[in-house]
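Archive transcription. Copying these from loose printouts into the bound notebook so they stop getting lost. Printout 1 of 2:
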Amino acid sequence: MYGKYFAQTFHGSMCGVGVVKHAVWGYCISHASSVGRLEIHPVEIAASIGDITPKQVKDAIAYLMAPDPESRNQEFEGRKLRQISGYEYELINFESYQKMRSNVDRQEYNRVKQAESRKRKKLREQFQVPPADDFRDRHEKSLVEGALAKVWVEEQEEVRQERIKDGKRPDEP
């Protein structure tokens, strides 16, 4: 499984609660299913994390299930975990954190696309390619942009080969 452990966890209401509570919370986040559910067995978690006892895990679980008046999210009184039955638990704010992760992914996607757009613009300026409106049709435009991209790739490969020849790593400036 995978879960994102946000830096704000260390600056929010869990600041200063101790290593064990953070370790158990990290375990919960990383072991949650795609809908935010997981099995929590104190003996298993203690063995998995190491150097903590099942009682410490139980105390951490009790802390995560308790109301937290300092929590940024006061839905469910700031609780982080909810027991469903037996060893089955649910991360209460799982969905909102999933959306946060999606926003991070979206920002990264936009950053990459913007960088690609800047490269294309730079190539058009470098080779004095007219604006898209000046092309007769989309086919002509795609041929020109393809040729520009090919030139750019060839230039980058030449730079890379020069770096290798000079004994540098290919990605070093």
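Printout 2 of 2:
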Amino acid sequence: MKRELAQELTRSARGSKSSRSHREPSKSRRVIAFLIFLVAIGGLIFANIQEEKAEVVEEEVAPAEIVERVIDPDAPKALEKLDEIEIKGRAPKTGYSRNEFGNGWGQINGCDARNVILFRDLTDIEMRDNCVVASGTLHCPYTNKIIPFVRGENSSEVHIDHVVALSDAWQKGAQSWDRDKRIAFSNDPMNLLAVDGPANQQKGDSDAASWLPSVKSFRCQFVARMVSVKLKWGLWNTQAETDAMRRVLETCPNEPILQ
């Protein structure tokens, strides 16, 4: 009886070992598979993190630092043309109102001037129709802010600035113009830029003697545009304004005027 019991225990022990030996490889395979799964998930998470980092870095890069401008060496230079602008005192602001330059935006090729400038200055544009910009992205030249534009939601965050302000133009020659010429001036794309709303409010009706963009790398372009507008429309400068323009343009003597 004892002998039979011992034989039975021996068989059971062998069977148990055999069973474990068959289960262990299966368990090992499951562990390996689980580790592979963890590595794959980790790789996806790392890739997503890197992609998010890349997007953030791209937004933080200042447009003025990544856009290389090509300057025509034969174009007239703003510094040289500055001397052609007449220097006089500022006339009184008496009689000025925004309506002297038209009631709102005029038309350019059948579309209002605001949407024409949004189309020119924004990127990633989506149109509502042939004339209306529904959305886009502004890289503000005054501040280097990146501003998503969505019509109706944050339209007021993007302004269209008169580089030579209407009030400033009024005091430097425009008050003697007829209404049609003032309306044409108000809607001239050369004198218009899409910019950050708060920066435009800060600028107000200042000239170059009292306000310049906070982005120093844009100041040459800004002043050259002012010179171009003044020459095109026959507006004058004050002495302080000419002096301020000259200080900026002497740092970039090859900056061309717009034509």
